[in-house]
Amino acid sequence: MVMEDLTNVNRTRRYISDGLAAIKMTFLKDMQEMGSAPRYSPEMVYQHFGEEETIFGYEDLEVTIHHTAQTLYSYINVSYSSKVKNEKGLEADDIVDKLVHADVRPNVLVSGKEEFQQKLLKQKDFKPYGEMVHKFESKGKSYEIYKVSEQSEDFNLFLERIQTLGMYFIECCSLTDNTEENWLHYFIYERCDTGEGDGSTVTNVAGFATLYKFYNYRDKVRPRIAQMLLLPQYRKSGIGAQFMESFLRDLRATPQVFDVTVEAPGDQFVYLRDYVDCVNCMALPEFSPENLKNGYTDNMRLASLQKLKISKAQSRRVYEILRFRSTNKKDKEELKAQRIDVKKRLYAPMKKSERDWKRLNLALTADELRQAACGEMDEETKFATLSQAYDRLMESYQKTIDRIEAHPKIF
């Protein structure tokens, strides 16, 4: 009986696939590229296949999601060597059903290769939505940034397709309700030659950013970045910072904008934002090395807010990164002063009383709440916790500093 159970378990395991390994994506300009185009892996598929990110029911599974490079329609090809039989209640996952929700499937998926080929042919007529707010050259390629503040039916369908794609790369990504007028979208496109020899060009989608404009007393708004994505073929090319700086420049030039905030950022976004904000603040006299040594001041806060639309919390973080960068690590007293300055901020949540917990829960991040919980610790434990928090923070700051040293300018 035991041997039979083990045999059944092993047989079942044959039909369990790692979703991150099985799924690949392509972005095509024509049908001829389908077999040779680079394949890219998603970063997450838990929204499709659960927390384990596994696909059940197939052996040697390969799932390729082909996209039209400009309009982002999808064609899914599924191949496998064998499929589990429907025994004892075990049924293979319906891969297409899990990859694309039924509500958006008619807009996102094509029915077969012939329809996909027609989408590829028609995409040459695609024009970016909205107005162009910036363009730049990077490593021999041309990029354009467009802002969309007024929605249309065609645009909403296009946004639905790229946000469906975003679910593979953005934590908790969801489709936005564009019937709300407070949504604001930015897109980055690569301007490419068609290769037809007549000088004609097309625009391939490179990424997007979605913001929600919250009201700020009296006549201001506080745009919050809800989603930002570079498609996989454009990652690690340096254009992420250039894209962010491009749409931030547009927001800074808008008098109605008070500051720009971020909703639940992931680690990679935090590093990107830190880099962009630090490079910009380095140009402000208030953030000169001489001023940084004297501690964080209202002048720094106001300068970063008024000139760069940086929020108070992010301004303080930028100050700490730049001060750590300018600190002479060989000077023990200078390094000690820097360390004490950061630890004072880290220690502040630990001193809160019990009556403040409800307010803290609304105001602090998860890490800061953990620090607040240290208020119940003895002094020795608090010291050790502070030291660990400081070391982790400086390690993350150093990543931004290393990028600044390698790339002191965004453009």
Question: Can you offer a commentary on this structure?
Answer:
This protein is α+β, with helices and mostly antiparallel strands and 411 residues long. It has three domains: 123 residues, Histone acetyl transferase 1 (HAT1), N-terminal domain (Histone Acetyltransferase, domain 1), CATH 3.90.360; 198 residues, Gcn5-related N-acetyltransferase (GNAT) (Aminopeptidase); 69 residues, no CATH class. 42% of the residues lie in helices and 21% in strands. It is built from 16 helices and 13 strands. A six-stranded mixed sheet has the order 8-9-10-11-12-13, covered by helices on one side. Helix 8 packs across helix 9, helix 11 packs across helix 12 and helix 13 packs across helix 16. The longest helix is centred in the C-terminal third of the chain and has 28 residues. It is globular. The N terminus is likely disordered.
Produce a short descriptive summary:
The chain is an alpha+beta fold and 411 residues long. It has helices spanning 2-13, 19-22, 46-49, 95-99, 105-108, 113-122, 153-166, 239-252, 267-281, 289-292, 298-308, 312-326, 332-347, 357-363, 366-373, 379-406, and strands at 16-18, 23-28, 54-56, 58-59, 62-68, 74-79, 82-83, 131-138, 141-148, 183-193, 201-216, 220-230, 261-262. A 6-stranded mixed β-sheet has the order 8-9-10-11-12-13, covered by helices on one side. Strands 2-5-6 form a 3-stranded mixed β-sheet. It has a two-stranded antiparallel sheet with strand order 1-3.
